[in-house]
Each structure stands twice: as structure tokens, then as C-alpha cells.
Amino acid sequence: MTVNEILNKKGNEVHSILSTITVYEALRIMGEKNVGAVLVIEDDNLKGILSERDYARKIVLKDKASKDTFVHEIMDKEIVSVKPTDDLDYCMDLITNKRVRHLPVLLDEKVIGIVSIGDVVKSIIELQKNTIDHLDSYIHGTKA
Ligand SMILES: NC(=O)c1ccc[n+]([C@@H]2O[C@H](COP(=O)([O-])OP(=O)(O)OC[C@H]3O[C@@H](n4cnc5c(N)ncnc54)[C@H](O)[C@@H]3O)[C@@H](O)[C@H]2O)c1
């Protein structure tokens, strides 16, 4: 299964923010949209990503105030992204080895979607279930 196929199922919606808003405002948006990360997109270009982890480690543990800190001060600028043609295994490798939970999907350097660890795990489980169903029908001689 490819990233494109995951996006076809879950949609291309991307919740993004500007780097000039406060971290508090960004957290409010994350809460409102019920997501664990937001992309920082300016002039159609992906500038960074801000996650709940950034908040925990760069604000709470550093004794900073989210209302006095701007997104550009703590956002992660080293973005680990994928292409629509990348496959599930590649996504899982990145999530595991780079320790990220959200992968922006880029096509010609523009953001066309986002896949999270939850999306990838859900797709892997679906694929495994299909394989089991096929094997089951093969063994028991019924059509899947
Ligand atoms: N049943 C499902 O379809 C499904 C899919 C993904 C996650 N989940 C569950 O949600 C919980 C948290 O998921 P998570 O750790 O993957 O992270 P998450 O809460 O950030 O992601 C949840 C969903 O929101 C989407 N999302 C995240 N950030 C986004 C953004 N900036 N713009 C647009 N969409 C965005 C993700 O792609 C994912 O589909 C887990 O309990 C997981 O099992 C369920």
C-alpha cells in the first residue's frame, strides 16, 4: 500500500499554522482539530512542524510560557517527509528510526497531505487482516 492510497482513504486535509502565532494558540488549534501536530506552512512552503512533544519538551520542561513563546522559536525545522509513491514499510521505517509520529506528504515540494503513526498502523493491520482472510479461505476452500 502506498502513501497515496492511505490519503485516498483518509483525505488530504492538512491543519496548518503560521510560525508567528504563539505556542498557546497553536495548542488551541491542535485541541480544536483533535490532532497531535500541526504543520507550519508559509507562502505555500513547509517551514516546520509543531507537535505535542515539542510543547512537552521545549516549553513545559524548560519552564517557558506557551503564551509568551512563538511557534518559530520551538518548531522542528528538520522535517521528515514522504512522497505519495512511498510505501507503508518505508513510512514505518521512518517512524521507527527517525522517531517521528507525523509524516507530511510532499509532491513537488508542496504539502498534499499528512500521515500519522496511527494511519500507518491502521493500514498495516488492514493489510494483515486481508492476508489472513485470504489464507483462511485458501485453507478452508471458501472464497474470501
Ligand atoms: N481509526 C482510525 O482511523 C485512526 C487513524 C489514525 C489515528 N487513530 C487513533 O488516534 C489516536 C492518535 O493518533 P496518532 O498518534 O496517529 O496522531 P494524531 O492524533 O495526530 O492523528 C489522528 C489523525 O489526525 C490526522 N492528523 C494529524 N495531524 C494532522 C494535521 N496537522 N492535519 C490533518 N490531519 C492530521 C492523522 O493523519 C490521523 O488520521 C490513536 O489512538 C490512534 O489509534 C485512529
TrEMBL record:
Keywords: CBS domain. InterPro entries: CBS_dom (IPR000644), CBS_dom_sf (IPR046342), CBSX3_CBS_dom (IPR044725), Diverse_CBS-Domain (IPR051257). The keyword Transport does not apply. Residues 7-66, 75-132 form the CBS domain. The lineage of its organism: Bacteria, Pseudomonadati, Bacteroidota, Flavobacteriia, Flavobacteriales. This is CBS domain-containing protein.
